[in-house]
Amino acid sequence: MRSTRRNTLRRGCVGAFLAAVTLLTSAGAAVADDPSASASPADGEDAGPTEAGTTFRTATAIQQEQTATADASTGDYLYWAFPADAGQRPTVRAKVSLPESATRSGASTWQVDVYDGLRRRQACVYGHQTRKAAPDAGTVELSCVLRTVRAWSEPWASDPLPGSYYVRLTVVGLAEEDLGLPVHVETEVTSVGQGGAADVDGALAEPLVPGTSVVSAQGGSTTAGSGPEDGWSSGWWTSRWLWTAGGGVLAALAGVFGYGLTRGRGRPSQVPPGV
Q1: Which residue, of 3, 63, 172, 252, has the greatest Cβ tally within 10 A?
Q2: What's the predicted TM-score (pTM) here?
Q3: How far is the CA of 150 from the CAs of 8, 17, 90, 236, 246, in angstroms?
């Protein structure tokens, strides 16, 4: 009887342990791979702006997953501003439709740069930040994958932090006679959530959102780099909460399991009367 009870207790503890591990694994994966972070907007939702700013102060505000367009002249500096929150790894893409090759005198080189809310240039860890378009090319596509946005960082560091980010697109190599030719530009920003791997101990008091004027999609002005549509997380929720709670559950189960083993071994064997 005693052996049967011990085996039952052990099986129950092991079953609870496996169930807890399964729950934590599935919950962590759901947070890290949340499809809402990179899902494309449904048809009929708000369209992106159709113009670009020409300075940091007049950068056109866009949201992630929006496709912004603009008609401009070759040689113009084009600016957009978008919000990025803690745990996101933004990817900026730009496509430039060039004038007809018959109107151009040679090749051109284009470049996309990204700056944070403090106007610090952020490095691209992947992508084609600078590209050269051949004289007969119809389009040129550029991309820049930033480092993961951190909830907090040392003041001296240049880590990406929650707040507004500026995209600047321009031509950096061009024959002088081609300046002013019309171009059409499409810009889009997407992000992938990095989950608990990007969590840090600490959070900014406020996201880095400059209080400057920018051009909105309706042609008016608004505050630069308006926040994400679902609000700023400010780093208060991370998957560490799941692992902390899970660790407590597993520790409790281990204690119950150990207590059952020691109690079963410490009890004296009972000899039936009359033996």
Answers
A1: 63
A2: 0.68
A3: 47, 33, 12, 12, 24
